[in-house]
Amino acid sequence: MKHLSMFLLISILTTPLLAQEHETLFGSDADHGGYGAVSVRFTSIQNTDAVLVGGYGGWLIDHRLMLGIGGFGLVTDVRARPEAQELYGWNNEPLYLNLGYGGFMMEYTIAPSDLVHITVQALIGGGGVQYREDWFDHDDGWYDDSRRHGGTDALFVIEPAASVEVNVTPWFRASAGASYRHISGIDELRGIENDDLKGLSGQLTLWDQRGSRVIRGNVLAIPVEQTLLYVEPIYLQAETAAYPELRLVAVMHDDQLSYAETFDKALEGLLGETVARPAALPSGAKLSTRELVRKADEAFTGYLEALGAKRYQEASGALERLESALQDLSSQLGADAALPPTP
Fold first, then answer.
1. More confident residue, 2 or 123
2. Structural domain range at position 263
């Protein structure tokens, strides 16, 4: 029952611990994957409450930097001014604004592994604004009679934004924030100016990321004197990579758990100050404690490489060397050992 509890403990802890593993932004260990988001923005256009709906997507680097494209469109009715109604209207039907824009988007996430964190983004691009008629309800059902009037006026847009984001799952996030829409270039349509489309927006965003998945390796139960030492490698498999990459190694003994990027660091974390403390070699010892840890790490690395290449006899020999190194380490530590016998 005690060993089962330890196994459940590592099952619960290793996945969120892996999610916190982040190297440098453009380092070789950075994770890459596709990114997609749906966003709703609540704003004011021409002194009328309005809603913009859109989305954006691109390539996400190390869960921090997103480079991609995005776009938004006006989905609520904003009446044209009387000047435009008189100039462009037809048959006394009311005119409404059509607005759409999009372009290049860049987003940066601060501390993405934290439950709640900050994101900043910017959209730079263009779009257009025009007048249209309304939807009509006839006996034979709804149809779009949204004829355009006055042509389309092109515009340039810059929209910076900031949001507070929550990690709902490892691949799904929700955020709320604000943006400011700066518009320029409108000079053809009558009855509308750049300032009519500028303004603050409150935004709600839901996004999903794909591109990599966590793979848990086989748990090794290694006998060390009268106890068992549990070792589990954790991998990350990117959709664009042919093979998974080792990202975390968890080591357990009794009620102690240590994890690190490599086996030797995880083992040193389990042993604590015993490894760091310089001491004379015990009588008859050929290797220092740190050298034995390094020897165990080499055996563990050799085991994983041989197993991945399906050289099972070589993997078995590496596993025997790992057990032998751990036995020597436990014997050398003696009374101060971090691997005491289990009662």
1. 123
2. 2-19+213-336
